[in-house]
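Async update (no meeting this week)

Hi team, since we skipped the sync, here's where things stand on the single-chain job. The sequence we agreed to prioritize is pasted below, unchanged from the tracker. I ran it this morning and attached the output directly underneath so nobody has to dig for it. Comments welcome in thread, and please keep replies under the output.
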Amino acid sequence: MTARYSAGFFEGVGGARLFYERWIPEGGSGPGEESSDFSRVIHPKTVVLCDGIGCDGFVWRHLTAPIAEHFPVVHWHYPGHGRSGPIDADRISIELLSGNLHRLMDHLELERPVLLGHSMGTQVVLESLRAQPDRVGGLVLANGSFGRITDTFHDTEVLKNALPELLRAAEKHPYMARALWGRIPPKLAFRAASRLGEIDRRHMREEDFTLYWEHINLISPEVFLNLLRRAGEHTAEDLLSSIAVPCLVVAGELDMFIPAKVVRNMALQIPHARYLELVGASHAGLAEQPDNVLEELIPFLERVSSRPQPT
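Output:
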């Protein structure tokens, strides 16, 4: 089964012009049937993809089409990312992104979608659940944590301690920061990331990494660093024990950004959460091992779809 593709923009918090794209299965039947009006699909099985910091979709590249064979899929770009409009660096936050996610759900009239967050996207979808729990049908939390991510980067507080100075330098010398930000060629960055173990070179395609690297070089360093700071300050740990929707938690065994033990601990705090650890995978495990992810994800989405919906 193929899927129909469309793209557009919606108005985010504060009037921001934000980009989204969507895939709808062709010839769906029963609950997953496509609406006769392509601009309006209302179904709890819709999957909304939420990126990590500095990303505009590379990690979903090998997942979107297989998911969209069965379920409508929506992916969007955060402010200051991809094709979305710019944002003042000091305004961006997890709460703002969560508010924009609700605006997207309003715009597309989505009813109880499954929110799939990668990396920092985990915090975005958790905050969205906190704000409007009745609007969420399920969660997939991949390679992310409930918050305070700068405390556990590489299992140390090095990033947490260095971030304030990096922010001060970027604010004091913005032109220099932007000049240095995009100086490392993708091939060199790929080799360095491979040797340092930041990615699993056996499974990560260089073209996928290049897409990520080229995009991150286009983002304002002030926006990136401020969002990283806000993600390091934010926490949704208090929410975990009260999560009542189905939840799938995915970790990478060799993830250095969000270590597997951090993700596992989060899963243990969520009632009835299903935990999947990708053996040998890095922080980009969704891109490195899409087949293993889909083996768990598609049945999970089917189970969510079969649950009685609240009246």
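Quick observations from my side:
The mean pLDDT is 86.
The beta strands are 3-11, 17-25, 47-50, 73-76, 114-118, 138-142, 247-252, 274-278.
Reply here if anything looks off.
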